[in-house]
Amino acid sequence: MYTVGMDSHEEPTGYTLPPLSDEFLFQVIFCMEDQANEYCVDLKDGVITESAFVVDRREIDPPRFLDLPPWYPSDGFRTMEKFVSTLRNPIYRERLRQVLQSGKGVFRQFKDVLHEQSSLERLWYYYKDREIRRRIFYWYERHDEAFRLARLGEEAPEDGPGELIREDFAITTDARPYLEEIAAAGARIVERLHVSGQRTDLHIAVQVREAWKEHVDDKHVVALSLSGQFVAFIRYRVYAEEGVAVIRCYAVEDEFQGLGVFHYLFDSLCAILNNQGIREVVVRLAGESIKIEHMFESVNPVNLTRTISISIPHWCDDISNIEQSSFV
Questions:
Q1: Which residues is 81 bridged to in the sheet?
Q2: pTM higher than 0.85, yes or no?
Q3: Within the chain, which residue ranges are assigned CATH 3.40.630.30?
Q4: Of 203 and 111, which is predicted with more confidence?
């Protein structure tokens, strides 16, 4: 077996790293993040100890002790930069970028901003934990051949981001207390589309207004924060005879975008529809919502319709030109 704390020309020491159990892994992570002290592994006893407490023993038997992988403040800063670059929520992405560029109290400010949004804060800890675990796995691979050959276990925490989202939001099908928030979300979307001044956005604004009109047959799934705050919704209609549901409109509040809330809502909706025997769901994509199309790629969605916009003046001019040319 490969041994640690030795060069290839040295005699084997007989020391090996302890198994990378969850308990030992958590101890390593805790010690790596402690910037006030330095730690090493006592390979003989299989425990982690402060380096300052084993100076004498280390001089007598150097291969017995192995320094933990370093995790400097600069590593933490780079991890924060990488995390921010992955965010899809434009509001928090920009705020956190400003924090990173402020140059003063960056770590404290970063945590304060994340603390405002519990789901985002949990995603950050998940991301950071995954980065540290990768460092530890690489360290184990360098110093333990048995671990390198076996390569057992996952680099990331057991609960992925999807599980984190489910712990931070509640789903309800009773939209009556939130109809004002739903209407306000539609009004904001229409306003943004009008402000852009783009021709295509003006057309989409018309579609949004139509989709947001309430109908007696409409049903909803609504996402709420654990404090009861309105977060997102999907409005849909079921055509039981055809076994089809049509999503009429949906929205996620700005501060909760990019966290996977819509995915969670859609999962919940599909579970409800599946229990009702509904076999297909139709999703209309337009404008910004086209960005979520990739979410459905794994199930090979079928294109049903295509909507186009025709310029009436151009069409009339074209007809006029055709009529004139017919008399030449």
A1: none
A2: no
A3: 167-299
A4: 111
